[in-house]
Amino acid sequence: MVDMNQQVALISGGASGIGLATAKKLIARGASVWIGDIQETQGEKVAAEIGAHYVHLDVTQESDWISAIDQIKDQAGRLTQVVNNAGIGSLGNLESVTVEAFTNTLQVNLVGVFLGCKIAAPLMEQSGGGSIVNVSSIFGMVSDQHAIAYSASKGGVRTMTKAIALDLNARATGIRVNSIHPGFADTPLVDGALAEFDAEEAEAFALRTVGKTPMGVASPKQIARAIVFLLSEDSDYMTGSELVVDGGYTAQ
User: Fold this and answer.
1) Which of 45, 47, 186, 243 has its CA 20 to 30 A from that of 211?
2) Are 16 and 41 in contact (CB under 8 A)?
3) Sheet holding 32-37: strands in order across?
């Protein structure tokens, strides 16, 4: 197990699901972890339970990112790892998805990742470099007729990650940037997305997506293991890469 005693990490959307599972694994390896989330009560509760720090973070707000990074700089003095994990799972086809829902999905899932990379990078460079992991999705590579907004946002994360990785490398910042593409996991995001459908639509969606995953639904910790790999020195020759962790879904 790679020692992370000198690492300081910020995880957006870290109060639940994959973000929380990642925080636990990083802490187990000795890292100092900051959970950024809009869920104040939940965030403070889990941070206290696992030995992390909580900071309020609405990823769509540049001012929140600046405040969070300033707080980490003041209290930890450095930042070496960022996981841009916060996201929403809005579903709808071309007929049903509204412009408002489409735009909101892009704001959280894509603009939020852009801001996380942009605002965190200077402190990471000052800290000697590090690793950023942007959480995309298999729906940033393939899709479903009800994932128009979601796929647009996650596909954007996929290719934007490559551009940011090239930029940070060209400027010799010492920062690596990779995207991870989870399949279907047992998280609040997946549950919330399915809740947008009526029972018949939800069943049909589940059958053609989750139901076709060869290895079944993942646990958050299975995705977290792969994120920790990308954050660690074990992946030190990877930047601009995309790591698919989907139980065989996209192999079909």
Assistant:
1) 243
2) no
3) 53-56, 32-37, 8-12, 81-84, 130-135, 175-182, 242-245
**pLDDT band at residue 228 using 50, 70 and 90 as cut-offs:** very high
Element (H, E) at 52: none
Active site residues: 150
Which CA distances in Å does 17 have to 72, 134, 138, 244? 23, 15, 17, 18
pLDDT tens per residue, range 122-135 = 999 999 999 999 99
Ramachandran angles phi, psi of 177, nearest 5°: -135, 125
Residue 13 φ/ψ, nearest 5 degrees? 65, 35
Interval 161-193: pLDDT, tens: 999 999 999 999 999 999 999 999 998 766 666
